[in-house]
Amino acid sequence: MKVKPKQTDSSILDDFKFCEEYLDKVSRTFAVNIRVLKGNAYKGVLLAYLLCRIADTIEDDAHFTVHLKVQKLREYSEFFPPSSNYKNQIRKFLEDITFKQETDSSVLLINTLRVFNEFVKLPETIISVVSKHVKEMALGMAGFQEKGIDKNIVFLEDQDELDRYCYFVAGTVGLMITSIFSGESKKISPLLQEKLQKRSVYFGLGLQITNIAKDFFGDRKRGWCYVPRSFFIEEGIDPIHDSFTDKPEAFLNAHKRIINLALSYLDEAIQYTLDIPRTLIRYRLFCLWPLFMAMETLVKIYGERDLFRGQSVKIGRDDVKRIVRNTSLAVMSNKALRFMYDNERRKIREQRNLSSLSHLNPW
Hints:
Distance between the termini: 53 Å
Radius of gyration: 21 Å
Number of domains: 2
Largest sheet: 2 strands, parallel
């Protein structure tokens, strides 16, 4: 049975309060760092996140057909920038959307109009920036979804294709946030903005590839493998027919390669953050928290066999609290932040060394 998630009553909860409530419901991690922002940067990034999350919901729903996903992502892209007729466009867009079950993400999507009601109130400069990148994201997602037509499982072929996919779903977000921050602070000069933009895509790629490494098993169950096919083939694996039980070390090596790729992009992300003026504390914290959560995630999953047995491996609330506390204390010291980042890097290097020596132990 399919369900139509509820449209919330705007007379009970105003539209922006709805957006703030659903930010907490659809994101455990990004809600934390978005709330550290203030003013138009806060409103702009919050609404941009929800608009991106609506596109994610279309892309990720396991019960939508590929054709429906492509259709709806393309329709969604037409909402940017919003026209004077956006309310009727959105109502028509939602008419034939139903879900297998109601979730927080499905409720958000069915209430797309409420997000747009607040989005159109933002300064024109922010509307323009967000529209450009969410439109690009939705169209890019639609293009990749077409790969899934008439296939039981979809693979990205190589690192170039992985990077292109991650650009659309995350690199665009990095560019968007940099533009919002630059527009809202005179402390970010045009020269510095250009410098930040060059690394902002890598920041997005680092976070996204970390999620790909963490969610490998769940993505595979719903018919997608974002770890490139070439990574498996180069380890001597047939990624369709071989199982982790048959070739555990080869699977782990392919998985470690995706982790190392994420690390190479996060190396750019820490430099991006250190380039933000020290006095822009809120912008720095916004970047530091997801960056160090990603690093903590990579430490936990490096060489972790439970991922391939379907078990969830993720950082806990205590980890998040520790990251927030420690980075908040060090936020104005580039030297301290670099030391903290390098320490996380060292933990992964130590695991790598232990892993390489483990085959020498006969016991």
